[in-house]
Amino acid sequence: MRNSSRKSHSRSSRSLHSVYISSRGARAMSWTSRFNIWPEESYTGPSDGREEAAKAAILEKAIKGRQQTDLMLRCTILDAVGNVKTISGQFKRSDLSSEHRLNPRDLRKIDSRIPNLVPTILVRREAILVNVLHIRALVKADAVILFDTYGSTDSRLHSVFLYHLEHNLKMKGAGLPYEFLALESIFLSVVSALEAEMVFIRNLLGGLLAELEDDIDHDKFKRLLHYSRRLTSFLNRAKLVQESIDEVLEQDEDLAAMYLSDKKKGLARTLNDHDELEVLLETFSKQVEEIVNEAENTQSNVQSTQEIVELILDSNRNALLALDLKVSIGTMGIGMGALIAGLFGMNLTSHIEATPYAFVAMSVLSTAVAVLVSWTGLRRLAKIQKVGLSASSGHKGHNRRHRPWLPLPLRSRRSGG
Fold this sequence. Notes:
Elements: H1 2-29, H2 48-69, E1 72-78, E2 84-92, H3 93-99, H4 104-109, E3 120-123, E4 128-132, E5 135-139, E6 144-147, H5 155-169, H6 178-214, H7 218-249, H8 252-257, H9 260-265, H10 275-344, H11 358-385, H12 394-401, H13 408-416
Antiparallel strand pairs: 1-2, 1-6, 3-4, 4-5, 5-6
Helix pairs in contact: 1-2, 5-6, 6-7, 6-10, 7-10, 10-11
């Protein structure tokens, strides 16, 4: 008996040991190859080892996938004449940093795979870094580097911007340096994108608000909520763009440092000598400000419509509650009349049965009680429904309104006298 128990115990320990070894082996193999999930028929014990191995495999795959592309950026380069030199070329981040004398954190701000919702305009020694909406560019005195956005679905907008930028850089005799022509194309594309989105949202909200004037529906109210959220998001992005431009306008050092062509030629420039660039940036700042004001007006219209719709719904709800109260008051009056009729309808001797006018008198009495109770309740309900702002002051405030108005010194004399 003891021998059999020892044998069974040794078998169970061996099986557990084999399971532990297999789990360790599978966990170790997950770092070199894809982990294969065991079938359910082989083992039905705890799945902690499987979950850890699966997590390790996913982490390893993510690390391997990022190591190949993390140090690479996809760029489109335009030369000093305005021709496209390279289309979607792969460049190392370290090479770009050393070539253009940038810090690695500067390129991190314009890396398209890193979500960055705040627009930034950074001025460096030989370049201007622009990260605004769909545009991430590096502007120099003789070149423009556009960083392609990974996973972007709006390729038409990018192609239109690239065509306009190429055409603008090829213009001769424009009176503006190369970097200012590039900045002009960038901000024109940004303003055009904001205007197009504003027109789209305005058309959506305009049609929906017109529909809500005729009929208030649950689905329309949900659409209004969705569109208002979209409008709020657009308004925040437009304000951030305006703030980024205004921030550059407030810094005289940055404005003077943005003259890259003069800096390349060795021409010295004072801090206050930046009229051309200031006029250019102020023009786009005013355009973005107009878009922001239009978005704010549309948002105020949406909020007013929401408040009016809520007031209408509250009024309808109050009307239904008042109707319910009126029906309840009428039912109470009829019940009071029925109570009197029930009292005299019991099988008890009241010595009124012999009276010839007893039935008529009881009927009139029951009807009068029912009408009186109903009229009293409805009159009280009508008074409650006519509550105004002056009703909260009470009887004391009502008497105070009939007193003549006196200045503060005369009031003190009157109270003292």
